[in-house]
Specification:
Length: 517
């Protein structure tokens, strides 16, 4: 008996080692090079997580443009040749994005699993709402509402004199509130505070933003598979946001966007959904509308204020557009109104925003193989893909490619302008023109449907910030801020830390030459 007790741990250890050896995946003929890593289950997750860009570059040097890595229990086949992105997109029959995205959203946001066949008809209607309310002529109403809300929030800074605040804090407190109100309308109780007892809107928005950040802070861990119930603060924050976005509240709000109104109507038709699940779908919409727009706006303004050439060019464009719109100095009673076409014509701000996105975007485009199939790359090379494996494209590899973008780590405000000052679309690799050269919003079926509104709201913010504020960064001589790579794969990377901004609200509606640099 004693001998049995003595040998038992040894037997268990041997059994565990045997299981690990047997469970290690072997590369089959025709498959891409395979890296299992040395840590069970995790594979190469730690190496990848430390710096995805450098990890993939090192793998590319060793294995070429396609290889498979085990990451946190799943197998990811990375396709790094940008000319082969189209080959992946054309595999719609063998590669699925929708089930992966819906399943992930279900785990993180806690709404119903819309992969369930019972929702198959309704979910198609939900997806069509994005195109019908966020693209084309109907986008103008959303743009107009955002412009009104931005100016209303900014006007609160009037009369405060010079103020010092973190640039990230400055951008987020304005953009978050304006974006929230544009989509979800004005909270009725906050509107009625003067009649007694209701929450002031500034306090309501501060609480909402704190909850948003608490939830968003845990997003990398949840994306890696950690259940939200183990992220206590994030779970409570998500539920607090869901309470604010409950249909009983939203139905009393003023100025609901068409996007949210139509989503509410569609969800109300689904008898299987309870009210809490409906509210959680709106939390997912709030996150989608803010999580990448906030850091993208931060980086755009940060680079403008750091670069005198960018600041001069942006100011000149803002002066021109506001002048063409009939806005005159000192007339704060006349709100700034810009059309979708006027915003589209602001090519300088467009180039600045795209360059900021290029430098800060680290999104990953993922598809899941629904069957075993053979992927043919642009070069003609083939790769056998197993059912259940993930196909991953990492556009940051392209964004930071010195063959495509000269001095790729440097900010160049006119990088996306041609010789005529219009949007540049000619970028090359290996002597060939790239059809897709900037992909901060994904591509194909995973392309963000709200990308046009996102670009427009950043342009609106920059226009109004340059119009209404004198601004200066605290230390222009400091080294450029670095991005926080812990959020790689989720979209736009935030800065590792904030930077001090000194500003004051200026009582005029056109940019003055005396803007502090």
């Amino acid at each position: 008996m004693a001998a049995l007790i003595f040998y038992a741990p040894f037997v268990v250890l041997c059994a565990l080692l045997l299981w690990l050896l047997c469970s290690v995946r072997r590369r089959q003929p025709g498959e891409p090079p395979l890296m299992n890593g040395w840590i069970p289950y995790l594979g190469v997750a730690l190496e990848y997580g430390r710096n995805p860009l450098e990890f993939l570059r090192s793998m590319q040097r060793k294995y070429g443009d396609i290889f498979t890595c085990k990451i946190a229990g799943s197998y990811f086949t990375f396709v790094l040749d940008p000319f082969s992105y189209g080959a992946v997109s054309r595999q719609g029959r063998n590669l699925d994005f929708q089930k992966f995205a819906i399943g992930f959203s279900h785990k993180v946001f806690g709404h119903a699993d819309f992969n369930d066949p019972v929702y198959s008809y309704n979910i198609k209607d939900i997806h069509s709402i994005f195109r019908q309310t966020l693209q084309g002529p109907v986008l103008q109403q959303l743009i107009s509402t955002m412009m009104e809300n931005l100016q209303a929030v900014m006007r609160r800074d009037e009369g405060h004199g010079w103020t010092t605040e973190g640039l990230q804090v400055f951008v987020e407190r304005i953009m978050f509130e304006a974006g929230y109100l544009t989509l979800f309308g004005k909270e009725e109780e906050a509107e009625a505070m003067a009649t007694g007892g209701a929450t002031p809107r500034w306090l309501f928005m501060r609480q909402a933003m704190e909850d948003f950040h608490a939830f968003d802070k845990a997003f990398p861990e949840m994306a890696a598979g950690l259940p939200i119930h183990l992220c206590g603060r994030a779970f409570r924050a998500r539920e607090a946001l869901a309470e604010k976005l409950h249909h009983r509240h939203l139905k009393r709000n003023k100025c609901l966007s068409a996007l949210i109104e139509r989503r509410m109507h569609a969800f109300d038709q689904m008898e299987q959904l309870d009210e809490k699940e409906k509210a959680r779908t709106h939390v997912s919409m709030l996150w989608a509308s803010q999580a990448n727009t906030l850091p993208a706006t931060f980086w755009s303004l940060y680079y403008i204020l750091r670069c005198p050439v960018a600041l001069d060019a942006a100011q000149a464009e803002v002066r021109r557009v506001l002048g063409e719109s009939g806005h005159t100095p000192g007339n704060l009673e006349k709100p700034v109104v810009l059309s979708k076409d006027q915003l589209a014509g602001m090519s300088v701000l467009g180039s600045i925003i795209e360059e900021a996105l290029r430098l800060s975007s680290a999104s990953i485009m993922i598809r899941v193989a629904s069957e075993n199939f053979t992927l043919t790359l642009d070069t003609g090379k083939t790769a056998a893909i197993r059912k259940g494996d993930h196909i991953a494209m990492f556009p940051q590899m392209m964004h930071m490619d010195p063959e495509i973008y000269e001095d790729p780590t440097e900010f160049q405000c006119s990088r996306f302008l041609d010789e005529n000052g219009q949007k540049k679309t000619d970028f090359y690799k290996n002597g060939r023109k790239l059809r897709q050269f900037l992909l901060p919003f994904g591509s194909g079926v995973s392309e963000c449907p709200g990308r046009f509104f996102a670009i427009n709201e950043i342009k609106q913010f920059l226009t109004l910030a340059l119009c209404h504020y004198d601004m200066e960064l605290h230390d222009l001589a400091a080294a450029p801020l670095e991005t926080d790579c812990t959020r790689a794969g989720l979209g736009i990377l935030p800065p590792k830390h904030d930077v001090s901004l000194r500003y004051r609200f200026r009582n005029c509606v056109t940019v003055k030459e005396k803007t502090v640099r």
